[in-house]
Amino acid sequence: MTTESSPYSGADRSPGLPAGGPNPPTQPDPAAGQSLGREAWRRLKQNKAAMVSLWLLGAITLACLFGPYLLPWGLAEVDWNAFNSPPSLTDGHYLGTDANGRDLLVRTLYGGRISLSVALIATLVSLVIGVLYGAISGYMGGRTDNLMMRFVDIMYSLPFMFLVILMMVVFGRSILLIYAAIGAVEWLDMARIVRGQTLALKRREFVEAAHALGVSDRKIITRHMIPNAIGPVIVYVTLTVPKVILLESFLSFLGLGVQEPLTSWGVLINAGTNMMQTAPWMLLVPSVFLALTLFCLNFLGDGLRDALDPKTR
Amino acid sequence: MLNYTLKRLAMAVPTLLVIITLSFFLMRIAPGGPFDGERALSPAIEANLRAAYHLDEPLVMQYLRYVGNLLQGDFGPSFKYKDFSVTELIAQGFPVSLELGFWAILLALLIGLPLGIIAALKRNSAIDYGVMGTALAGIAVPNFVIAPLLALTFGVLLAWLPAGGWNGGAWQNMVLPVIALSIQQIAYLARMMRASMIEVLGSHFIRTARAKGLSESKVILRHALRPALLPVVSYLGPAIAGIVTGSVVIEQIFGLPGIGRYFVQAALNRDYTLVMGTVVFYGGLIVLLNLVVDLIYSALDPQIRYDD
Amino acid sequence: MAHKLLEIDDLCVDFQLPDGDVAAVSHVSLTLAKGETLALVGESGSGKSVTSTAILRLLPELARTRGAIRFNGEDLLGVPNRRMRELRGNRIATVFQEPMTSLNPLHRVGDQIKEVLRLHRGLRGQAARTKVIDLLDQVGIPDPARRATSYPHELSGGQRQRVMIAMALACEPDLLIADEPTTALDVTVQAQILGLLRELQQRYGMAILFITHDLGIVRHFADRVCVMRRGELLEQGPTAEVFANPHHDYTRMLIDAEPSGSKAPVAESSPLLLEAHDVRVLFAIKRRWFGHSDYFEAVRGIDVQLKRGQTLGIVGESGSGKSTLGRALLRLLESRGEIRFDDTDIAHLEGSAMRPMRKRMQVVFQDPFGSLSPRLTVGEIIGEGLRVHHPELNRAARDRRVQQALSEVSLDPGMRNRYPHEFSGGQRQRIAIARALVLQPEFLLLDEPTSALDRSVQATVIELLRELQRKHDLTYLFISHDLAVVRALADSVLVMKEGQVIEHGDTQALFDNPREPYTRELMRAAFMGEAA
């Protein structure tokens, strides 16, 4: 058996620069391949900013989930000894209290639950709608695709923030509506990305080769299209989450989103704005939580994009 | 070119129609009538009111009447500000919002684009990392956090500038709102400009320009800048929409008498006609500005001008 | 002192990459006299383009250059930037490989040429305009006054390359660096551009440094030749001498890698395997909301007959419809007309009825990077067809078949758990062949299977295809723009242009005595090296 063992076969092994690239046969374990996913993960791990962001996000999420149980104060519990008290280590209100004597840390963590849950659910909604819509549009092609994308174009130029507010006015400010409305707004980009991927993949030769093998349409979609489209989708999801959080807190800040007794970071920041001259911590604490979360998500999204598509760096 | 313009116009009309129709029917399916809030209305008075607002007609008639009035620039009366029509309120607020938005987008372009270009030219240098890190912060910190912080620092603590109010449009009152409104767009524009510039600088025709013997500054000014600006121009549509949306919250925080403030008040008070009027107005504005951006783009890119 | 125009002395270029330095060019020395043509030949990664880019000092910043590059006695590596810019585009001009992207899309082509005249000659206004039109005329652009106001996207690839040449000639340079100037062009256009370069060289007496991977062009075009491999200069000398008597094994291998031999004919009694009549493929180019859409007919009524064991070559330039025809025959595209495979009408088989036929007719594509699903292991890729057509096989049996297929294409079966991106272009093409072979098909569509590969690798893949055909009595439909490969592999040839068959005949007869002018032009363009 002769492998490609002419003395010159190295010439075609490394496009670009000579002597670069791994030489498969000489690697210690020829049986274990490096999948693209695992390589992306390896690259992501080398990105310090992205990894720190990942840990911080994990910490914030855990704190929001379990923090309130560990602290002695309830969401609406009033401490009659501490109104507007600044952050302090001695009285148990580590990040201070608000004008009604409620513990700010507890409220911020509860607010985080709402903000994060909106992020999660609304992103999921946008993911489902966007992926289905985009995949159908791209896969069907032709006139259907044309029509579906025209519709997206029109939706794009709608002033969405205003329509969401309109919906909040009409249907009342319920948290369920926030999930649905934001999700329904954010799916457009996802649909475009997925459609683009689907169209590009449909023309790729490995998909044609699969057709030639007689692989069924369903299998082609699940085995060849979805795994290859998933990278950009993951990146986009990471970048959608901060947008959604921002949108929710924007609405809540204006008083058009989450309502008392529930709270969210936007609501807390709004309350803090009104008190910023006398009690600046009320503005700073929720702002820092919100900004940190958004910062980490953006860093993570950038890191993921670089890891999944090293060309773009 | 004319053809292209007409095509884009033809696209804008259905968009506007969707906005109008959507907001009209959303308002009409709203649970509870617009007069629910005001207690102790006798049925007779309510019937009178309904007739006065044409709420007793069939839905289709109401819709056609609304569209017809819109075409004449009549957005109907405000439910809450009884003495004003929606058109008057918008006409009052718009100059303020326009001025704010204009300066904000100008500032965003004047700062964002050069920052992006510098970062691209000094790629992977300390300057690049600094600019991009700051830009990421600008994206991560929302304007409703930045705005109060600015007001607190420069308006209250340092007392250099007024922390709020319009004061007839004095420049001192504009500075903080404009900065707060533009920061996010500065960040987005800088990031886009950098990415686009880096891509163009790696392209073959830049190599050709260098091989011609052009100096680096001419290569950038004559050959790299315009192609690099194209994707940024196409982003201006969303950027403008972002500024318009942002103005709502900024006007609220700094207490400026623009449409954004009316809009929020109307939304909180369920002033249906005013909410609807502002949404349609904003929608029309954004569609119009998108159209302008599209035309600018097509003027910059010969490949579009001649293909369509 | 009568020095040479260009002297490269012990040139080394290192790229400082994050994983350490990589030597792209090491210790290259060569000279070029006034008016001479020197070809720099090598496969991808040989350092030939890096060398030529180093002359212009246009390498990326991470490159470190040592040695000396003397142009008219002046060491270019030592001169200040300002001086270097005076030389670029003026005394040393360049034509690049990518005509489609080498011109600025936002400027009119006339203005792009004018820019050089203004920079180096100070020409402005009417004088510059006249000169531009004169230059465009010299490079054979019809209606030059009007074309000068065109944007690049309004010109064809060949015309853009002519504009690039006009731009390079603007200041009548002493040295023209031509970096694969014809690689991206169709053969007939390629021949025209080369003819133009030669004519202009004679008129202006400039020296040309010609960078190419194509030995046919070298033989035809260059006075002297330098052969490079992995950054090193292996051998240089007068072209005829190097071709007649190569000193280095690598050079010999490159020359031998030109495909040779011919296909042994099949028995007269061999049955027809594939038969197609009046095949047509339509593409909708503009869809309308109402009424009829506009269509483009990519394949316009073609007949194909192929006996078992035969190879039919389909040649033609880009856009001739050859790949479309191939895909239509395999029912990968909607088409009209009759297609019979082994006496079964497959043109009208739907979905699951077509599936059993698919096993018998397989395909290998051109792009070794695009034709393998990047997220599946090589084993999964090859095994996929078995899952579809042999669901009765268990995992172990399937794995055995995969291993067999891999060894059949001379790859180590132990590598079946690796992913495609870990393989070279040639290896991937072998994987694609294995994917087809594992189903034991009777018919293979080979769509430019070697076009993306370096010559030396190409030769080994062609040898493999020949061997497999003999062993399994395979029938090939071989699509290629490379006439040399087709001549070596095919029993008969079909020449296509604009969706139609121009000429059809036995390989030998057709190559010896082409009837149609278009076929003759194709051949002249493809084999000019041998004719010279």
UniProtKB/TrEMBL annotation, chain A:
Highest taxon of the lineage: Bacteria
Ranges where the record places region Disordered: 1-34
Record's keyword terms, sorted: Cell inner membrane, Cell membrane, Membrane, Peptide transport, Protein transport, Transmembrane, Transmembrane helix, Transport
GO cellular component: plasma membrane
Entry keyword Transport: yes
InterPro entries linked to this entry: BP-dependent_transpt_permease (IPR050366), MetI-like (IPR000515), MetI-like_sf (IPR035906), OppC_N (IPR025966)
GO biological process: peptide transport; protein transport; transmembrane transport
Ranges annotated as spanning the membrane: 52-71, 114-135, 147-170, 176-194, 233-258, 278-301
Cross-referenced PANTHER family: OLIGOPEPTIDE TRANSPORT SYSTEM PERMEASE PROTEIN APPC, OLIGOPEPTIDE TRANSPORT SYSTEM PERMEASE PROTEIN OPPC
Sequence similarity: Belongs to the binding-protein-dependent transport system permease family. OppBC subfamily.
Residue ranges constituting the ABC transmembrane type-1 domain according to the UniProt record: 112-301
Predominant location: membrane
Gene3D superfamilies: MetI-like
Name under which the protein is recorded: Oligopeptide transport system permease protein OppC
Organism: Modicisalibacter muralis
A Pfam family: OppC_N
CDD domains: TM_PBP2 (cd06261)
Compartments (UniProt record): Cell inner membrane; Cell membrane
Membrane topology of the entry: Multi-pass membrane protein
Automatic annotation (TrEMBL), chain B:
Family matches, as InterPro entries: MetI-like (IPR000515), MetI-like_sf (IPR035906)
Gene Ontology biological process: transmembrane transport
Membrane topology: Multi-pass membrane protein
Pfam families noted in UniProt: BPD_transp_1
UniProt-listed PROSITE patterns: ABC_TM1
Subcellular compartments: Cell membrane
Domain (ABC transmembrane type-1) ranges: 94-297
Membrane-spanning parts: 9-30, 100-121, 133-158, 170-190, 228-254, 274-297
One CC-aspect GO term: plasma membrane
Keywords: Cell membrane, Membrane, Transmembrane, Transmembrane helix, Transport
Family designation: Belongs to the binding-protein-dependent transport system permease family.
PANTHER family: DIPEPTIDE TRANSPORT SYSTEM PERMEASE PROTEIN DPPB-RELATED, DIPEPTIDE-TRANSPORT INTEGRAL MEMBRANE PROTEIN ABC TRANSPORTER DPPB-RELATED
NCBIfam families in the cross-refs: PRK09471.1
The protein's name in its UniProt record: Oligopeptide transport system permease protein
Natural source organism: Modicisalibacter muralis
TrEMBL record, chain C:
SMART domains xrefs: AAA (SM00382)
Domain ABC transporter: 6-255, 279-523
GO MF annotation: an example: ATP hydrolysis activity
One Pfam assignment: oligo_HPY
The UniProt record lists the keyword ATP-binding: yes
Alphabetical list of PROSITE patterns matching this protein: ABC_TRANSPORTER_1, ABC_TRANSPORTER_2
Residue stretches in coiled coil: none
Gene Ontology annotations of biological process type: peptide transport; transmembrane transport
Gene3D superfamilies for this protein: P-loop containing nucleotide triphosphate hydrolases
Keywords, ordered alphabetically: ATP-binding, Nucleotide-binding, Transport
Homology family: Belongs to the ABC transporter superfamily.
Name of the protein: Oligopeptide transport system ATP-binding protein
Organism per entry: Modicisalibacter muralis
